[in-house]
Each structure stands twice: as C-alpha cells, then as structure tokens.
Amino acid sequence: MLRRDLSIVSSLRLAGLGLGLAMGMASAAFAQGLVPPGFFDRVPPGTGGQAAIEADILSYDGRTQTISAEGGVVMVYEGYTARGDRVVYNQGSGEVRLVGNVVVLDPDGNRYEADSVEVTGGMRQAFLRSLTITTADGARITAEDVRYADALETILTEATYSPCGLCIDSKGRRIGWSVKAARIVYDRENATIALDEPQLSLLGVPVAWLPFLVLPDPSQPRLTGFRTPQIAFDEQTGASLEVPYAVALGADTDLVFSPRLMSRQGLLLGAEVVHRFAFGEVDAKAHGVYQLDPDAFAGELGDREWRGAIQTSGRFTPAETWTAGWTHTAFSDAGFLPDYRLSEDDYVVNEIYATHLSRDHYLDARVQDFLLLGEDVSGADQAGQGRALPVIRGASVTDLPDGWGQLRLNGRLLAVDRSADHIVTANGVDYVLGHEGRKVHVALEGAWQNQYVVPGGVLATPYLGLRADAASYDGAGGDFSGSEVSLLEATPIAAIDVRWPLVARNGLDSHLLEPIAQLAYRGSATSPVGITNDDAQSFVFDDTNLFSYNRFSGFDRQETGLRATLGGRYLANFADGTWLELIGGQSFHLAGENAFAEADPALTGVGSGLAGDASYIVLGARGAPVAGTMLGAKVQLDPADARIARAGLGAAYERDGYAAGVDYLYRPADSALGQDEDQHEIAGRVGAPLPIDYWRATAGLAWDLSAQTWLEANAGLVYDDGYLEFGAEGTITGPTHRTPDDLRYTVNFRLKSPSGDVLGF
Prior knowledge:
By secondary structure, this protein is mainly β. The chain has 4 domains: 2-219, lipopolysaccharide transport protein A fold; 221-377, no CATH class; 389-619, no CATH class; 677-761, no CATH class. β28 (387-399) and β29 (406-418) form a beta hairpin.
C-alpha cells in the first residue's frame, strides 16, 4: 500500500460542499426545520491543509497531468474520511472524480453514499450521482443525482427525505413519514426552495400532493424574502393566513412585515424591527387592525373598529456581570394581544431594569408598571395594579477566613403606587392584595452563621442577625382613612439549628436519619413591617419551610417572638436507583407575639396552622421506592382535634408502555378564607398500549368526593411510532367543575424528527 500527501484541498472542499449543500437543501425543503438548522452544512474549513490518500495503486500521468488512485482508496482531510474504488485528479483542469461505491464520513458520524462524485468547472461545479445520506441519528436522504453550481444553486432530482431511514420496523411494517419531490431547486442567493411535484407519505401511503411549491429557506432567517406562512382559525377572527416577509436592512438590522388576512376581521398589519449591537439588541413591534366585524366581540373590550399595540424592548450587557434593558407595551385595549394570538400571558410588565450578578453579589433595580391582559379586564382592575417606582433588591455573601463562618447581607427597597385598592372577593370574603396610594418600604438584614461539628457528630449552626425596617404609607386606601402611617423598626435575630446525621450503609444501599431541633428568636412585636402587604401574600406551612427562620415569602411580613421547631429527615438511596425521602415536624411558639395569629388584609397565614402555641404537624414524602414509580405527599395534622387539616397526595407509575397515576386533594371548608365547602377531590389516569403496535389508549376520571359527583372525564386514542403521531381525545366536565357541563374534542397530528423537533398541531 502506498501513502502520499497531495494538495487537492480545493477539490475535496468542493466535493464536500456539494454533499453538504445537498443535505442542507434536503433539510430545508423536506423537513422545514425538523432537521436541525445547518446540520448538513459540513464543509471542511479552507485552512490550506493537506489531504492524505491511501490506495493500493497510485499513479501519475505527466502527459495529462493526472493523478490516479485505485483499489481501497481512502482520503482523510480535516476530520472527513472518503472511501471509493477510484479517484482521478487532473492538476491542469482541477477536475476531481471519485468513482465507485463512494462513502464519506463527516466528523459527526453522518454517512454520505454515492455512485460517483465529479467536481468540474474550475472548482465551481459538482455532480453527485445516486446520492444516499444516512445521518448519525438514522435519518435518510436520497437523490438520483445532485447538481451544484456557482455556490448559489443546488438541484436534486428524484429526492426523498425520511427521518426513520427506510421507515420499516423489525416486523416489516411501514412507519413514520417521508417527503418526495421530482425536482428540488435551492437558490441560496434568494433563499428560496422550489419543489416540483412534492408528495407527503404517511406509513408509506401518499396522502398529499402539490404540482409546485416555493418555500423560504429556514436555514437563512436573515435573508430578504418570504417566511413560512401560518394558517389559523377562531370564531371571532375567522380563518386567517399570515405570510411574513423579512428584509435585511443591514448587517445588524432586520425588518419583518407580518400581514394577516382574516375572513371575519379583514387585514391585520404587523411589523417588527430588530437591531443588534456588540453588547445587546433593540426590538420594536407594532400591530394594528380596522375590524370589519366588531360585533364578534360584542360586550367585550374588543367591540371597537380600530385596535392595535406597540411593543418595544432592549437588552444590553455593558459589562460581564451587568445586564440592563427595558420592555414597554402600549395597546388600544387589554384584550387586543390575546384576541389576535399575539400574547399568551395574563399581564405585561413595562419596566426599565439593571441587574448585577457575580459569584458573591447580586443587585437588581427596576421601575415597573403592571398591566393586565384579557377581554374581561375592567378599568378598576387596571387601576389596582401596582407601579414599582422603584424596586431594588440586593444580596451579598462573604466567607470569612480561617473557618470563622459566613456573613450575609440582603435587602430591598420598594416604592409602590396604586390608583385604587386591588381587591379579590371569594364568597363574600375580600382579599386586599394592594392598597390605593403610595407606600415606601426599606428593609435591610445582615447576619452571620457558622457550622460546628460537636462531639458525637452533631452539627450545630448558630445564626446571629439584625434586621432594620423603615416604611411609610399615605393612607389613601383600605381602612387607613387617609391618615399617613410611618414605621421604624429594628429586629435582633438569634437562632441555632442542631442536626444529628446518622448514616448506615448496607452494600450500595445508604440510609440517613437526621433528627433536627431549631430555636429562633426575633426580637420584635411587629409582623407587618411593610405596613401594607405587597409581597408576602403566598403562604402554606409544609415540609419545604418547616425549618425556615422566617416563613413569610416576602419582606413586608416577618415572624416575631421565640419559636422552637422539632422534627427530622430520613433519606434512603438504594443500589437499584430507587430512593425515598421523609420529612416531618412541628413548631411551637414559646414567647412574644405570634405573627401568624395576626391576620392582614391579604389574609396571609389565615388557616396556616401556626396561629396557636403548637402548630399543625407537617409531613412530607417523595421518592421512587419502586422502579418505574414516583410519589409525593404533603399532609397537615391538627393534633388538638386529631384531624387532617390539609392533604395532597400523588403517585405515578410508568413502565413498558403502561402508565397509571392518582392525585388526591383535601382542604376543609374555612369561612374565614371564603371557602364554604370542603375541597375533596381524587383523580385517576391510565394509559396502556393496545394489541396493535404503536397504538395507545388513555383515560382519566376526576371525582368530587364532597358533592359525590364526577368532576371531569376524558378518553383518548393515540398512534405514535416515534416519527409520526396522531390521535384524538374527548373531555367532558361535571356539574361542580369551574366550567360545568362542557364537552370538548382535541385532535393532534405531529411529524417528528430524530433530533426531537416536532411539526404539527
């Protein structure tokens, strides 16, 4: 065997380029984004390196300036390996021909097969005969021949794409989907893909055909041209067709027009401009419509002729640890964005912000205005939304030398303004989530903690801190009668957490049993240190906050007095990968004011189980104790009445295509919270493969145990072979459901690719 280094780099690069463009073309035309962008652009870089060739026979004809290699030819260049029966390289014309059983492997493991590859025209044209490409994840692309010319156009004849290779399973049955076209012309300069007679096949059966189709190239999103159209339908706007058109205004600026023609409302005009900088980008969007049929929104905010919205945003990184920017939205009415499917959010935030984040420090400053979205949003609803002018949060952690522990500093400044009280009513009980007027609250807390290992392996973690609060409120809302209120409070904090971790091992199994005792003192009798409660409204006492020094979720409330918490934790990890964790305990208020016995207008902490001297007992469990299972449970027990105060349980099993799950929820009636009846529900779900391969049936039922009636029932049938999925499901609700006696059907259809991308609905 002879081995030589030959300077045929340009020829190999062009041959690779022809193969790469053929694959990129197939990706864009056949999969329309299902194959990862740029996946087939595997062109070796033009570094001027040498290509190594191995062959049984290597000859040179000086008369014709032709180098020939025959017999077990192997070429290696920049991680690419090409094999063939024969290679002929003409030094004079630059023509390269790889003939006979040509196979190319790229660095990612994709396999290119062809009868022959010819590179001609002064390294500007390539011709590949009988091309077959098998990707590393099993997708297959074939073409009778591929012509590549001038780096601008690629033509594939009798081309096919299938994500599942031959799309025949181990039992000889057709699966998945494929696309075939008599001819495909890819114009890189105009970023278009033209298909002659494209045909879609499902399970080997042709189901759709067009005489001609022109599509935008999804792999070149910045080039001027049309983008993928979108078709939709809803009752209020009718059938719609949106055809985006993109214009590259410059190297860093893009403009996209998005006209949408609707059968019921006419023409919705939309445009978006994006400009990129070296350290950020700016985006501006505008949409507007003159509604031909405003009565489609009769009785709603959208019952008007002219509707529209303007949205802008910017994001900058002026330094490695700093991010700054803004977002702003202005609209004709709060229902416009969701009505025209321009937003799925319930609200928008207009804000200017700056954020610093490093290993030990965090600072975030924002000016914010919250606006609700939806057809049922009233002027009073919007008036109750807050404006943070500003909100600043910060935190810092410093590790002291020589094992002296850690210093922590965190704080927040909130200046909030509202035009009206924000009140939500449940069965006649008001939740005041925000007060009219202006409130300012500054909170700063510094603390030291360290962990010590004492004799017997006990871990003791003392905690010393000081919190300072300064707040003022103009008294414009609620029950303050217009009287201005101010507060200045200092709260010393002392706590200790003691744990005794006991570890046992049995082979690869391990068990941890950890008794925990905690004592925390907060030397203040004032819990609502923010005067009004704007950020500490969510609270449920459970295993996640059982051993917290301050269980309130925000700065506007704090715990007070002396409290002890006793409990423990058990964690088991088994050799087969299963595991189980149990946490439980109880908290005791020993002295001082009990913050949870003091209700605020937001009703935070009401019914939490912490209002008495002895709290509810809380238990939590989660894990996978058996292969294929997952479980979780949270329970509150009232020891005074020996009753369950709250419970939530869930379990799921999935293995070998079979699945089952159950969820249980219990919350007793509490008139103080506006819950007049027990919430007592159980829901089950099952799924199982049918005797027919790839088919699966699902069913579910939810039952209202309090009302002794069903809440919801559903059943579905799905086909899924990993590449093609379709099915249908029906759901009906019962008389006590939030949307009672509602019957709905859903249909899904998805084409899948090996990369996990999905195209469908």
